[in-house]
Design a protein that fits this description.
Helix content: 10-25%
Strand order of the largest sheet: 1-2-10-7
CATH topology: Beta-clip-like
Distance between the termini: 55 Å
Number of domains: 1
CATH architecture: Beta Complex
Radius of gyration: 16 Å
Number of helices: 2
Order of helices and strands: EEEEHEEEEEEH
Bound molecules: zinc ion
Number of strands: 10
Length: about 160
């Protein structure tokens, strides 16, 4: 009897055009709640270096995910498809960090063809000094969910 090959995590998703914004990540098949879908890959950058990296043109800061107070992962540098996952205020995925490595997990059952999203508030480091109005103006959200708070930053 031939053993069934293990399902690789990349078989769960594909990158496509999103109604939310630009490119998005979509389920190729039903993804059960609790599934570890993909690592959020990228170079590990000390937060203190991020600003100078942006100024020196090494990164645009768009795909930076916070790991802890000192460390970030920059999906723009050696990242994978996870960086294309859009924000939603009513997401179907969430980020868990194990041993300083972030992973995208399904927080609900995800239907085939559904777009994967997570709430970027987990990674906002710039938003703390802004008013609600400024957050909405500078970092608007287009997730179209009923729970939309108007910005991709935390409340
Ligand atoms: Zn929203």
């Amino acid at each position: 009897m031939q053993e069934k090959p293990k399902v690789q995590n990349r078989d769960f998703i594909r990158v496509g055009k999103s109604k939310i914004q630009g490119s998005g990540v979509f389920a190729k098949r039903k993804i059960p709640k609790g599934t570890r879908i993909i690592e959020y890959a990228g170079d590990r950058i000390p937060k203190k270096d991020l600003l100078s990296d942006v100024e020196n043109g090494l990164t645009s800061h768009i795909y930076v995910l916070s790991i802890n107070d000192e460390l970030s992962v920059d999906g723009e540098r050696n990242g994978n498809d996870a960086r294309f996952i859009n924000h939603s205020c009513e997401p179907n995925c969430e980020v868990y960090i194990f041993d300083e490595i972030p992973y995208i997990y399904a927080m609900v059952d995800i239907r085939r063809f559904e777009e994967l999203t997570f709430d970027y508030k987990l990674q906002s480091s710039i938003g703390t000094k802004l008013t609600k109005k400024e957050k909405i103006a500078l970092f608007p959200c287009n997730c179209q969910s009923k729970q939309c708070r108007g910005t991709i930053l935390a409340k």
